[in-house]
Amino acid sequence: MHVLNRRRFLTIAAAAAAACPLGFPAHAATRKYWAGTALGARASIRLDHPDAEEIIKAVRSELERLEQIFSLYRANSELSRLNRDGELQLPSFEMVELLSLCDTIHKATSGHFDPTIQPVWAMYAEHHASGRTPSAAAIVRALQFVGWSGVFISPQRIRLGKNGMALTLNGIAQGFIADKVAALLRNRGLDNILIDTGEFYALGGRSHGGQWPVQIHSGQSPQDFRNVHLADNALSTSAPLGTVFDDAGRVGHILDSRSGLPAKTTLPLVSVRAPTAARADALSTAFCLMSADEIEKVVASNPDIKVFFSGANGICRSIATRNACTRPWSR
């Protein structure tokens, strides 16, 4: 059983067992494990496959390539250069692809998913690091650099329309990377793998049959959980207080691009199951800022997604179809 809880740190795992070619049974000689760091966090890969060592090397290379595109913490990454210079000439295909998906999710969520929130996020981080609470005036000043309409995307050039604008892709990049790792493994003929980059993507089901079980747990009580099963789809969870700015743990990291304030929801967790991890990741982030009615409208227009959330009272619920009322999770 794999547990998905409040954490938003990154652990990458292609979790055994992968189907062996030519019907060879898995055994200790084919089992390989790697642990280290990737994308600035702990990472691990477990594979049960005759070519496991070569495959792990390829996955690590892919992670390094993608980090060089999307990392906020590497000074020479594509994202850092875009934020520093206000434009990026000849961006990678993946950067254009991901920002185009951001545009789609921004529109689908009526603007609640907005990667231009980064200047507000940075302002909160700076203030709280020095023991101060941001004033209303400081929030207003930071908000002048926020607005997705100021992002211009083309294969030749990405441009930010105002000096001081900056993007964060932390609400979608982990899922996007899970999708890319899945594509790499699929192209090598593998299946029966669960990939975890902080968001789960199931490449096929389990090798001995059935889907991958993932347990969502809000941490409110041992009984407050939901078992979700995955096969060729993804699951992402966002927690408004999963990462906080203040020592008291009350100022969450998911910020509203309209007000500049942290998400006001009382929900400990919002989880989304979707065909891709990138969509699941972005939607779970946006839904932390949206009302139940707003979420249901998005679900109604996207029948391939399902939303799970748990309330402050510990009752777990889900939204699945246009006219489905929210209902307690069955256990």
Gist of the model:
With 331 residues, the protein is α+β, with helices and mostly antiparallel strands. It contains 8 helices and 16 strands.
CATH superfamily of the domain at 78-160, by name, is ApbE-like superfamily
Radius of gyration in whole Å, from Cα? Answer: 20 Å
Second CATH tier, the architecture of the domain at 78-160: Orthogonal Bundle
β-strand amount? 15-25%
Roughly what is the average pLDDT, rounded to an integer? 83
Low-confidence spans: 1-27, 321-331
| Spatial order of strands in the largest sheet | 2-8-9-12-13-14-15-16
What's the assembly state of these chains? single chain
The helix content is: 25-40%
Briefly note the CATH topology name of the domain at 78-160. Answer: T-fold
Number of helices: 8
Structural class: alpha+beta
Order of helices and strands: EEEEHHEHHHEEHEEEEEEHHEEE
Shape: globular
Query: Main beta sheet: strand number and arrangement?
Result: 8 strands, antiparallel
> How many beta-strand segments?
16
Task: Please tell me about this protein's structure.
This protein has a domain at 78-160: ApbE-like superfamily (T-fold), CATH 1.10.3980.10. Helix content is 30%, strand content 23%. The chain has 8 helices and 16 strands. The strands form 4 sheets. The protein has an 8-stranded antiparallel sheet with strand order 2-8-9-12-13-14-15-16. A 3-stranded mixed sheet has the order 1-10-11, with no helix packed on it. The chain has a 3-stranded antiparallel sheet with strand order 5-7-6, covered by helices on one side. Strand 14 and strand 15 (316-319) form a beta hairpin. Helix 1 (52-70) runs antiparallel to helix 6 (173-187) and helix 4 (118-129) runs antiparallel to helix 5 (136-143). The chain is globular and about 60 Å long. The model is unreliable at 1-27 and 321-331 (pLDDT under 50).
